[in-house]
């Protein structure tokens, strides 16, 4: 029976004995099992009424349960109602409550603090666990000191009377063990418990007739002896608490931090323990509730309101800021609350005094909180000093760590000079004592640790200034940052030191001249590159701002720092996102002049001398680009806006991020709804108001004042009276009760939100209250957009149903002015200071003008409008996405779906210029203004763009007025496309002689065949011929002005190739380097599909969508149609200097070849809409009997995995698909043999030297799609994207040429590009996944899977082959004794075999290193002795005496060579000199990567390179030309 029922029976015992006759209720009690048969018989035999009543009560009190009590009370309801009423619980609440308080008082349960806030979620959790707690079980509340464990326990016990009276039978005892340290202290606590328990047991059992008062009292006296040990007292307490009265009791052991204390009180009852150290309960199998050290925002505000005796809604906004600064720490919140309570009057009637507390807390000055408190740090001090002697000094060393930093065991191992396992053991002990918090870092798969601010503040008060300086210095020394002359530029990647090296250097206070490291490290480009790679550019820029006075020694250093910060703000994101990108190389790529470029160039020059790979870039001269800073958002952007010096970014996850513009640093983020942010805006009247609209139709408002202004001193600033009343402690959510919100905008002159659903327009104030509602205007239409205009007196509404309209509505009179439209309006904007409206559609921006002076005409449906700009002005088939107007109403910015932002002058409606966003489409824009000193002068515009695809970045563009004025006359800049070709003829010589000889033999013979070109005798163009019959390049007639090109500072002497690039206006730009030489214009309806440069550099050949192929003469600028394939030209290439191959979409194949007379003529090889599947089918059609051996040879295979039967090509004899659409993939010219063509259906055809079809080497295959191929040294590879497979063949001669299958193999990803080495032994394949497969062709196995690219590999190419890449031997074909041990490959005289691949980055791989370092030990012992580093020979076996057939476009000339100035030097010698000993960059973890360059855009299709592999050219999707020359290259 619980204590409550027992108290009722005891309290009314006399009344029951006086009035009750048990005989009237005895049967009912027996029937309800309230009494046993023996009790029934005993009472029945008693003759006296009073004796019967007393015996029944004694029985109920001694052995009755709650059911027996309830049955007894129910039996009184009929005949003894007055007794029933006295025993009813509801009529005894006062007595029960008094009894509950008595129980708490007897148990010494403390009272709650004066100002206390309940933590309901934790209380519910503790309550549930207490109710389920059984005897001998322990519940533990674990948390650091000051986290609120004790207050939480008191609140649970005092807020749940039934828990005490029912579950614990009204018996509980509270003991505080904070000062219990010795055995005497333990014994004193045990005696105290024994006395209290014995006294309570006596009180409960006072009505038991079998126990005498004297015996109980004597036992109590005898048990209180202090002569007993704590173990003996524990045994006696076990006996006492085993009695019925006490066995359900709860024992609370508060602040228990010694294991021996718990052992002394392990007496069999239920125990609740609060502790900061879980080691004290480690062997008791407890239930542990972790008490986190933070209040929620609602809990903190409730406590503040309680201290000030006001409602939470009346708190000022500074209360929320106090919670954020303290991070909800219960310790700090309680101290602040006590301080607020003492200054209640000042704080309630004004908010400026709150700033005093904010300033103090922001500076970590907590002494003002201890003035009226008894040393709150005492508990922390005791906790820390209780650590073991070997751990305490180590823990105190952590005082040098920054605030709120999370560190790994690697960092602490440096700090403590211990190994990582030892550190983890120590941290485990600190965690059990609640001195640290431990988290698991999923990304780096390691534990990280954090020390709370309270403990850190105490730790920093322990050492003096000199000790702190030395500790910082020693910590840096552990990372080898000791000697300024030997400081490492490589940074340990422990996710700490890269971020905080500046922090520790500054706090050494120049101890041991440590500040000299600032200049040494932060102006070292290699160090900066490593730091940016690890931390990101924002952290480096912030370090420069903090420590510039330490870094810069003179004005030159300051200039360099400014240049570095500007560069990192613009391009630093690439270094962080693409870790293999080198800072020095990136500077050479993105800078063209200035101190930073000069420094980077000198570093690259020095490192190139140490065999590292660097490239010089040719830069466009005298080009002023708008500078921008790039913000790495890392989430998909959906909305952007400005807020003072910050940009706000809304993301697809519903998060709003705050980035500081000066540093690009993320300072704050808040969570909206779980849906994407659709719109984000700042109130123009009161900027701290921020509103967001999410895609789920919710609107949220915040009052943001913690990032706009930062306090810098202790001065209490005067505030306006208005600010006293701005109480915004929490955000406001406007629910879509009237339907989901579709659009939202701020009013221009009021703190009002103008929103709309599909059917109504609603105006809200900042508290979410409806101000105005228009709900009956558009019942038959849907509202798409709604924005304010005309000083918020009108709204502009875009609607849609069967037709599209734009309406200007008067908010008061509801009169409308209507503009008819023919398509959906995507967005609306007003031009400030005018009555002009801009409407954004997919293909145009339209301007509307409404009348503000006259009364609206309801039927005005023909209001004037005009087009501002169309998408066709930018490019055909381009659509608009978003728009923004500047503050002065002079410029319009429109983003397109091809990654650009165009600027339109709204005064003239002219297309001014465009911004190259390069890496994705801008989905949202905002415009701000940089204010000048003169308030009457307009400031420069600042444009914010958010890229919502491809690359999740925001960019801030600073639009200088002078730049805009200058570019207004240029009417936009044409963007280049990825269609281009490049030629690398040496343009530095020869110089034009004074009198060139007309028939110079030297001129005719000095040019090799591969540089001969066609010279037409047509009368349609001007002919300037110096030789009558030769096709060689006329070197003496070249114009130095056009072909000399330009030089960029240090770029003198480097190769400047000739480029022909198609632009997005469908013209061809011809450039020498980056200088425009000429332009080929086409008709607007003609689309250029392919372009190539003739080997002589005098002609540009291009194919059109119509099928026409044209030749353009660079010198005369004459154009001539040379052939027509009657369908889109898809392929065009010079397979040798005298042969141009062209293929159309209709499978037409034509050649343009040189004749003996020097003229060029077209030839038709294959007409359109034909498809010759195999020689057998061709012969069948012609009625020719095929040779028996031919089909046998076609079906031969060298691989079991290949499919070789005729049924594979034509199952069941089906020839219906014979003419299935196919296209030409590639052509290869084989010297002395002819031409090989590869088609997309895997057909391989051989054409003789006269271009007559000789045979079909490989017949067509069904369900294949060949997308790329390569042919080198008689080895052919074709890659099938449909089946994710590739096939390799070798070309061999028997009676005739045949194509033997080497292997057919299927991969797990689509192959996008492929390349063979010059000897055909190694194959590289770029996959759609970004991986690159390196394959041994002869051994039919994978050598290596190269992982780096994140997007598909668009291009692969090999360098020439080193002579000793393989271990050459005449016995290489058969394993010999010398193969039993691994061979040595070290040969510094040879350059490496290099593979260049391109996706988002261009990577140069050291394939020689890959082959040499591959693990060969397992494969070495395989039967036969073959392994991946075993020498491989040419696929054409010399023993078969099969001649080697080379495709001429890869064969270098051994004769006198015009390409290299006619000095009879093989270009391979230049390649050897340029690439000899090239190796990875110092400190790189990817030793197989020689260099990595991030494209300005996101992808490109092709890289062109010269024959000595020293100059590389590509054009990316953003239209940027990359001309990369190997530094220190020998080109002349």
Count of strand segments: 68
How far is the first residue's CA from the last residue's CA?
A: 107 Å
SS content category:
alpha+beta
Main sheet attributes: strand count, strand direction, barrel closure: 5 strands, parallel
Beta-strand proportion = 25-35%
Percent of residues in helices comes to 25-40%
Question: What's the mean pLDDT score?
Answer: 80
> Given the structure, what is the number of helices?
43
Widest β-sheet, arrangement of strands: 2-3-4-1-5
* Shape estimate: elongated
CA-atom Rg in angstroms = 44 Å
Low-confidence stretches: 207-224, 710-729, 987-1050, 1172-1219, 1367-1386, 1415-1442, 1449-1464
Care to describe what's here?
27% of the residues lie in helices and 26% in strands. The strands form 17 sheets. The chain has a five-stranded parallel β-sheet with strand order 2-3-4-1-5, sandwiched between helices. The chain has a four-stranded antiparallel β-sheet with strand order 9-68-67-66, with helices on one face. It is elongated. It starts with a helix and ends in a 6-residue tail after the last strand.
